[in-house]
Amino acid sequence: MTNSIPLQQVWPADFVKKYTEAGYWDGQSFGELLAERAQQYGDQPAVIGAQTCWSYAQLDQKASTLAAGLLALGLKKGARVLVQLPNIPEFVSVIFALFRAGMVPIYALPAHRITELAHFAEQAPADAYICAAQFEGFDYLPLARELQQRCTHIQHIIVVGAAQEFDSLEQIEQQGAQQPPPPASVSAANEVAFLQISGGSTGLSKLIPRTHNDYIYTLRESCKICGVTPDSIFLAALPMAHNFPMSSPGFLGTLYAGGCVVLSPSAEPETCFALIAKHQVTFSSLVPPLLLMWLEFAPQSQHDISSLTTIQVGGAKLIPEVARRVRPVLNIQLQQVFGMAEGLVNYTRLHDAEDIVIHTQGRPISPDDEILIVDDHDQPVPEGTVGHLLTRGPYTIRAYHNNPAANARSFTKDGYYRTGDMVQRTETGYLVVQGRANDHINRAGEKISAEEIEDHLLAHPAVYDAAVVSVPDDYLGERSCAFIIIKKDQAAPRTIEFKRWIRQRGLADFKVPDQVIVVTSFDTTAAGKISRKQLRHQLSQSLQPTHEQ
Ligand code: AMP
Ligand code: DBH
Fold this sequence. Notes:
By secondary structure, the chain is of the alpha/beta class. It has three domains: 157 residues, 3-Layer(aba) Sandwich (Rossmann fold), CATH 3.40.50.980; 171 residues, Rossmann fold (3-Layer(aba) Sandwich), CATH 3.40.50.12780; 97 residues, GMP Synthetase, Chain A, domain 3. 33% of the residues lie in helices and 25% in strands. It is built from 19 helices and 27 strands. The strands form seven sheets. The protein has a nine-stranded mixed beta sheet, sandwiched between helices. It has a five-stranded parallel beta sheet with strand order 4-3-5-8-9, with helices on both faces. Helix 2 packs antiparallel against helix 3, helix 2 packs across helix 4 and helix 3 crosses helix 7. The radius of gyration is 23 Å and the shape is globular. The chain starts with 12 loop residues before the first helix and ends in a 6-residue tail after the last helix. The model has no long low-confidence stretch (mean pLDDT 94). The structure holds adenosine monophosphate (AMP) and 2,3-dihydroxy-benzoic acid. The site of adenosine monophosphate has 21 residues, from strand 16, strand 21 and strand 22. The site of 2,3-dihydroxy-benzoic acid has 12 residues, from helix 9 and strand 16.
């Protein structure tokens, strides 16, 4: 087993003292949490999938049996397990089994392909990979084979569904049933519970180590802020591996509160409205483009969605014109959520004035979330003006996993995380997101690093140079546009071939540039060298419609 790279998240001692004394970190691990909920809510429904409904007791039992099966397979406490599952009940049982066995999930999205998976597996490094045999017409087994070939430290591949040469989750469960049940938890609450994936603002995605203590704190407070109780029924519509539907309060928050999680295979309104009506769903979370789809679909829908009381929207900026339509069209409360897998989460509160809910992205969860808004030289800007958002607090990481270069860039020496977001703070402490400082494209809530895609483009034999920029898009919020310069002796590939070529490099589909524009040069007015950041800025300006003659 390759566990040579330590897995930790360390706050300085005075902060540990402060957060512990304030009662934020209560010393419970996820394994213990589920056991406690099973005691409290035994027969109550915990997770509802297409064909299954598991009670808390059943989920707890499954987590134990699977944990025993994983241990029997030879995986040990501390093993890092790449989990790539869609919104199916097994997502929940697998991660709780890993928590119970003291193993550490790394959450990949169903859309990730070999390039991303191999990168996560190398960075961790991962000892095992768990996937579904198929999802949305994509066959994951060839991907699993390629991953195992590329990453020889992956010793076990476990498949939900037809596993062919690999272990099936069902087998693991059967084997686990032969073993003595493991203890509720073998992890200390200050240990790393899992690795989240960063949106990848610069280059490749980074791994985010979150501890039991810090994450459970966000669940507890998020449930209070969002009014989540044992009566709440959450629809997991966005991919569950995303931090937003996982924890703000998401499916883990709902389970924290003793509520019920309904899983939707997609966030399309047709599917979701039917599930809302069928299971009397009370709240859900969406990215802005999906909210738009829901708003358009609602007037013609036959489904009774009156059980829904709140819709949370986050991941990308929601424009006030759309925010304003939520109450009249859906007759529900809007809650804006501005968060990040690295930590800090802001919510508008349920009793906030309409104006705040429509025009701001909320305020932090914790009284000890420290917010700094600074200029390019890290100096505080005057109150109310736009600046870079820096933050530290009881659930914001102090370091990425195994990435000294990113750590040097992304954290100040005082331990503040540089979010990359440009924000403004209102007099009452609410944040308004105004844009971002770094070059990523926020495509319907999925973040794409311009640099990562440029590196792929530069690998094309015909490409001399490339720059990727974001373009405003009415539906997606932003779309990606690749400007490329073709080598002198080469012919420009057709856009469709070009996109196919990029896709074949094994990238998540959302990263394939939406638009490709061939140019003869990057027409830079400034003499001498300009930074890629300036170049991207100039190129994106050239795409903006100008109203001047
Ligand atoms: P990630 O790194 O994938 O966890 O994405 C976090 C980033 O998403 C934030 O730093 C913001 O740039 C963006 N984001 C999340 N929620 C919002 C929101 N409500 N409004 C604007 N941007 C958001
Ligand atoms: O975009 C995000 O990463 C995000 C949005 C809303 C998030 O991580 C969260 C809430 O917790």
